[in-house]
Amino acid sequence: xxxxxxxxxxxxxxxxxxxxxxxxxxxxxxxxxxxxxxxxxxxxxxxxxxxxxxxxxxxxxxxxxxxxxxxxxxxxxxxxxxxxxxxxxxxxxxxxxxxxxxxxxxxxxxxxxxxxxxxxxxxxxxxxxxxxxxxxxxxxxxxxxxxxxxxxxxxxxxxxxxxxxxxxxxxxxxxxxxxxxxxxxxxxxxxxxxxxxxxxxxxxxxxxxxxxxxxxxxxxxxxxxxxxxxxxxxxxxxxxxxxxxxxxxxxxxxxxxxxxxxxxxxxxxxxxxxx
Length: 275
Hints:
This protein has 14 helices and no strands. It is mainly α. The protein folds into two domains: 5-44 and 110-205; 209-268, no CATH class.
């Protein structure tokens, strides 16, 4: 536990910096202004300006680039095989699926860079608000549920997972009317998010107590993180080293005084007992 404590406090300090720099309003503004599905399918990269292509052209021994129009193997130009069938056998009639069971269109031409950026944005947003009542309440106040529906339109596993996790954090603080009108989102959370032990995010616990303790918990975590950073990185945090030494000497003197008082009480108590 002691080995992982510094990493946890560093992570909390980083999320506090993102929160203080208005990361959540900026992400919601970005998702609101752009069409996520259109940005993911847009091709903004030019193949002739690709990084590895430029490196290949400027290398000492450039290699010829394979063209998609050329045949990859000599068997591609061969005619299809002839199938023999008896004249009395009739080919089966072609069957087409009913309109209700048609599969969704699979997009093979997309911008992997925009996909990677969108997934990382939602992942960082989920890490910032995970387990923080104060920040999830801010998401509810910003009406982020309307904006977060845009990433859900893209049926990509990672993007959908982190978007549903952001929804899951703010569901306990939404009203019953919102839950009734967003049952599809709640069902998707059950299907795609891994449940935790004693996970009562939908049933709801003592929400009023969580709301009252949200700000004190945030302030206590900030105080603990500041204490750790000042103690281990005083120069980077701009703290006065001499003042810190005086405070440490004060605590040392208090501890020594308390130990002396305990020893005195034990000593006098023993003498009284012998008398």
